[in-house]
Amino acid sequence: MIHIPKSEYGRRRKALMAQMVPNSIAILPAAAVAIRNRDVEHVYRQDSDFQYLSGFPEPQAVIVLMPGREHGEYILFCRERNAERELWDGLRAGQEGAISEYGADDAFPITDLDDILPGLIEGRDRVYSAMGSNPEFDRHLMDWINVIRSKAHLGAQPPNEFVALDHLLHDMRLYKSAAEVKVMREAARISAQAHIRAMQASRAGLYEFSLEAELDYEFRKGGAKMPAYGSIVAAGRNSCILHYQQNDAVLKDGDLVLIDAGCEIDCYASDITRTWPVNGKFSAEQKAIYELVLASQEAALAEIAPNNHWNQAHEATVQVITAGLVKLGLLQGDVDELIASEAYKAFYMHRAGHWLGMDVHDVGEYKVGGEWRVLEVGMALTVEPGIYIAANNQTVAKKWRGIGVRIEDDVVVTKTGCEILTHGVPKTVAEIEALMAAARAPAA
Ligand code: GLY
Ligand code: MN
Ligand code: MN
Hints:
Layout: H1 6-19, E1 24-29, E2 35-37, E3 40-41, H2 48-54, E4 62-65, E5 74-78, H3 83-89, H4 94-100, E6 106-109, H5 113-121, E7 126-129, H6 135-149, E8 161-164, H7 166-174, H8 178-201, H9 208-221, E9 226-227, E10 232-235, E11 256-261, E12 263-265, E13 268-269, E14 272-277, H10 284-301, H11 311-327, H12 335-340, E15 367-368, E16 371-372, E17 380-383, E18 386-389, E19 403-406, E20 409-413, E21 418-420, H13 429-440
Parallel strand pairs: 1-7, 5-6, 7-8
Antiparallel strand pairs: 1-4, 2-3, 4-5, 9-12, 10-11, 11-14, 12-13, 15-16, 17-20, 18-19, 20-21
Helix pairs in contact: 5-6, 8-9, 8-13, 10-11
Bound molecules: glycine and manganese (II) ion (2 copies).
């Protein structure tokens, strides 16, 4: 299995601590276990920031980073070993494993957090934490601070500054290392395979969930624990619902099906959309819209390179889509004016992409000092233009209604442009039709 090497977590912690002010402390909790119903839990997914700094997969844990601390800078609070619980729920690293397997300098039972943490915070000038994202943990933090304050008359020194960790950490996460790109390439490879399998299985009379099952099969077979987000399998008019998740409608002859799905490997997401005809052959109108979206995506991909700004790719898609919609008679007027008045938004209402990484809509600022961010080597993003003509859109000729097309690929900025991680799925009309025809051909 391809994964982030253990040594990389140590490098990340060092890089973060190098940016923290002297005499400070950073505190991060693991994700809580979410109850699905009664005593059934949702599949556990570690918090991305916590995972980024530790690779530690268990709940009920807290990372503490104290640059310059003599007895070790990296302290991990985690569950104790427990033969009875491990028999029922699985193995735990325990404090010994936290040190030997996960590189902690020091480890304590999570049950000792309230006793030990105030002492670690005491005397530090600044506390870094993910304020606001975990209200329960924020409350605990204030409790620990109040414990220190209550001892002020004994000379205890509570910290004066509380700083959001996000700014430092999320900027680090925006730049992907070689190891991260390798993991993202693997997630993209498996997801590409899943889309191919769904294309091959596509038949009128099946259901949207039939194709979702094909995706899930490839994800799990490839070693992914779960999809990076709820898979969108949207046939016919459902393709015009941007975050459609019902996935229970029948696939009809003559309709398109839009699939937006990607798996997660070692907590790194992939995010692919392809759109194809249920019966394997595009109609003239479907093909016209599809090729327009594809042309806009190619124009956007050409804008992704170091020193270009974040919005250039989006602007390229707006230009190509608006001009194309005028040509097809779906918009009337002057292209520049239609862009200025945002008339294209009736058909293309979302942006051309987002940062991609441990979170599918990954962290990182899109603007710096009020200006669009300039692309740099190692940034990962999606490129995903679309055109959606709702089934009830009375302003266009009937033949266009109910066509929704999105094409989405994942890229990483390189020195000379970008690497397309998701190149493994067919994308042109000819490629898709050929793949689907081959899947339907009777065995020789
Ligand atoms: N799958 C969500 C997105 O494409 O942004
Ligand atoms: Mn996306
Ligand atoms: Mn997507």
